[in-house]
From TrEMBL:
It holds the Pfam family Ank_2. This is Ankyrin repeat domain-containing protein. InterPro entries: Ankyrin_rpt, Ankyrin_rpt-contain_sf. It comes from the Bacteria. ANK repeats lie at residues 60-92, 160-197. Keywords: ANK repeat, Repeat.
Amino acid sequence: MHYLLLVYSIWILNACQAKTNSADMNTQRINIIEAVEKNQLSVVEAGLKKGADANTTDKNKRSLLLIATQANNLQMATLLVAHGANVNQQDQIKDSPFLYAGAAGFTELVKLFLAHGARFDLFNRYNGTALIPACERGHIDVVKILANTKGFPVDHVNRLGWTALMEAVVLGNGSEKYVTVVQLLVNAGCNIQIPDHDGVTALQHARSRGYTEIAGVLENASAKKNGKE
């Protein structure tokens, strides 16, 4: 009888300890999330040195690094990456630090993530790359970097049936920055002949919208390609 009481007492103590440890871990998790959100760099650094997980996520599965990325906080992102934060970790809507940085035009963060293992085979909720929304929004510096990064899938087609080039034409407004984006893609060797789901090419879309400068860039690219052939 005394033996059973002893075993039971030990079990109770262990259960209480487990609950305490769990509560402590949850508190630590919440604290470091808040510290990243509030840009408390020293607090985050201290927490990481004490063993906090650099890949901690919030209720929406946003990692600490994604939270820092969404705030365009290069200093915080650099700290987190130095402690092993995953630049490819996706949240519940498939945003990752790398994908978000590209879409938002955060050039320095894109560079940081490329230097720390950014993957090109993980896609956003539209099954798109970091380059496609960068082209859509006219983020010239990001387009220049990604389009010229070895191994980057410049001609990837997203769920809408559009490449980066197609989005620059269809969702752009034909202004100078989109002319530059198209030229950058052409210079990087993109395939200008890939049509959308309706069989319409980027050049045909540019002509129908009256984007004469973009059409000119694509016509020149086509002429050069045909000349080589």
